[in-house]
Each structure stands twice: as C-alpha cells, then as structure tokens.
Amino acid sequence: MAIIVNVDVMMAKRKMSLNELSAKVDLTLSNLSILKTGKAKAIRFSTLEAICIALDCQPGDILEFVADKE
C-alpha cells in the first residue's frame, strides 16, 4: 500500500511556488520539499490544514491511497 502526496500537483494548479507555499504555511523549504517529494513518514493535521487553506483544497486533493498490485 502507498500514500501518494500530490502537493506538487495542487501547487501547479494554483500556480504557487514552493517558496510562496512555505511562507504561507510557515514550514521550512526543506520540510516542505520532503513532503512534496513523498519522502515524509507523517504529517501533522495542523500542517495539512494550513496547506489546504493556502492551496484552497481538501485533504483528499493532497493525499491519495494506491493499493499495491498483487
């Protein structure tokens, strides 16, 4: 099973740069980059909420579940 992080997709749809999102969400560029590339192991609900507010989207627009093929 895999959780896919689509922050980069939503950023592109909103025409927002990583620097701009970092400032709006109050996250460091490195932490936001880890999340964006899907290397994060966890995300706080407060961070998810801030990203959703900044990108005007729902959590389901950012996080996606893809089942492993058997």
UniProtKB/TrEMBL annotation:
Residues 13-62 form the HTH cro/C1-type domain. GO terms for molecular function: DNA binding. It holds the Pfam family HTH_26. PANTHER family: DNA-BINDING PROTEIN, DNA-BINDING PROTEIN-RELATED. This is Putative transcriptional regulator. InterPro entries: Cro/C1-type_HTH, Lambda_DNA-bd_dom_sf.
